[in-house]
Amino acid sequence: MTRFVRFCAALLFAALAVGSTQAVALASMSHDREVWSPTRIDALPPELRSRVMRLERSCGAPLSAAKLFALHLRASGTRFIALHFDDFRCENRDILCGGSECLHEVYVRSGSSFRLALSIHAVDLKMTNEGDMAGLEVTTAGPHPSTVFYRWDGRRFVKTGAPAANGH
Q: I need a labelling partner for 93 at 20 to 30 A (CA). Which of 8, 18, 61, 79 fits?
């Protein structure tokens, strides 16, 4: 009887191991579908969606984006949207990226639509809201990687020497 119980336990353990491996594989496939989704592009305001969709022919495949492709910020009553093309699926990556730097675009709400406020190739672009003042931290690559800071002056982003929080 003891051998039978051990055999059944071993069989049950093997069945659970195979089942959990299949569950992990299914979860991985589901996660990949969640990472790249065309619905993130569809959710953009019409003028931004139109701008992004014009890239489809150059990219060579249906477009999709990761969760952090479009980030939103509101500061001083102004709405901003940053598009991070490093989180954008494009088969012909060279049209958007060079080395470790990819296109980043920041749009500002102007009236009832959005207009381009800044377009730059960078490793990363982070929008900030310090004291209700919009700012950008742009990380660049190259032989001397650096972070460049910008602040919103009500019309455009202006380079500054330090983050807005430092008062410089």
A: 79
Q: Is 90 exceeded by the pLDDT of residue 48?
A: yes
> What's the pTM?
0.77
- Phi-psi sector, 145: left (phi>0), alpha (psi -120 to 50), beta: beta
150: pLDDT strictly greater than 50: yes
Q: pLDDT band at residue 9, thresholds of 50, 70 and 90?
A: low
Give the three-state DSSP class for 47: helix
Nearest to 69 by CA among 29, 42, 109, 95: 42
Check: CB of residue 90 under 8 Å from CB of residue 120.
Answer: no
Q: 97 phi and psi, to 5 degrees?
A: -135, 150
Name residue, tokens 């001397």: 144
